[in-house]
Amino acid sequence: MFRILARSARAHGCEVVGVIPEPLQTQELAGAQIGELIVVKTMHERKAVMTERADAFIAMPGGFGTGKTVLQETLAKWCDADVIVYVGCGERGNEMAGVLHEFPSLEDPRTGRPLMERTVIIANTSNMPVAAREASIYTAVTVGEYFRDQGMRVALMADSTSRWAEALREVSGRLGELPGEAGYPAYLSSRLAEFYERAARVTTLAGSEGSVTIIGAVSPPAGDFSEPVTLHTKRYVRCFWALDRQRAQARFYPAIHPLLSYSADAAALAATVRDWSPHTALRVRAALRSYGCCTVTDPVGELVDLGVLVAPDP
């Protein structure tokens, strides 16, 4: 369904950076079409230099079992990137072992060879020293910038920034610094900003164009999006994919909640949507409905769809 959107976006001078293919839309993975259109950038934005802001960072918060790692692996396989940098910060050893086992078995859709050949994995499990866990995020983004400066497009998968923040909290406590909310250091917000703002599209000295896109997973305790790491992350990212536990248990993939998620770049598609025919618009609306925007797992969305809950006129 969203391939119609992708073709229309290309016809209007836009670049579709990554599209999840049709084979993933199986009955077991119902609703994959909602994440089919990954990123759209206009052509003039592609020519941005380092001094211009690049909106190349995405946050994926979700509780345990909502599919953060699986979604990152899917993006790593199908996104239009030259190099994949995957950093496991503070995750359990069996999860990193699973990544090391699954990535070599993934087939690169471009070349048909193992995806591992263009993937860099930085593993810092929970049993490693706390200083190593804190440095893992910086190591990953530095490696990404190394390939970016060679004119390559880099996709950085950070799993997860919550574990990195916990390591930051532990280091801060050992240094005797004054704690902030939930025991995190007072400079947590600025550290998150420094990390996400290193995602950029640049023109190298050789004249080629490179970029770093950061897709950071957030693991809030008990899926509480009001905890400090999630709240501070929302201040700096322009694309927010909220993974819902109820949708994951109902076997929606990806379990992105359409009422809690947003993208600040949606205006880039406004002209494309206005040019759609009524028939195409109805088909897209039907696809969103089939994804489960208004299902029994989302009673609020169902009431909004029925017109029971209506926002007041401005």
Provide an overview of this structure.
- This protein is 37% helix and 18% strand.
- It is globular and about 60 Å long.
- The strands form 2 sheets. Strands 3, 4, 5, 6, 7, 8, 9 and 10 form an 8-stranded mixed sheet that branches. Strands 1-2 form a two-stranded antiparallel sheet.
- Residues 1-6, 12-55, 293-297 and 303-311 have low confidence and may be disordered.
- The chain is α/β, with parallel strands linked by helices and 314 residues long.
Taken in chain order, the helices and strands follow as HEEHEHEHEHEHHEEHEHEHHH
Range of strand content: 15-25%
Principal-axes geometry comes out as globular
Give the helix level as a range of percent: 25-40%
Structural class: alpha/beta
Secondary structure layout plus pairing:
Layout: H1 2-11, E1 14-19, E2 37-42, H2 43-46, E3 57-61, H3 68-78, E4 83-91, H4 93-102, E5 119-125, H5 130-148, E6 153-159, H6 161-174, H7 188-196, E7 201-203, E8 209-218, H8 228-234, E9 239-240, H9 245-249, E10 262-263, H10 270-274, H11 278-291, H12 299-306
Parallel strand pairs: 3-8, 3-9, 4-5, 4-6, 6-8
Antiparallel strand pairs: 1-2, 7-8, 9-10
Helix pairs in contact: 5-6
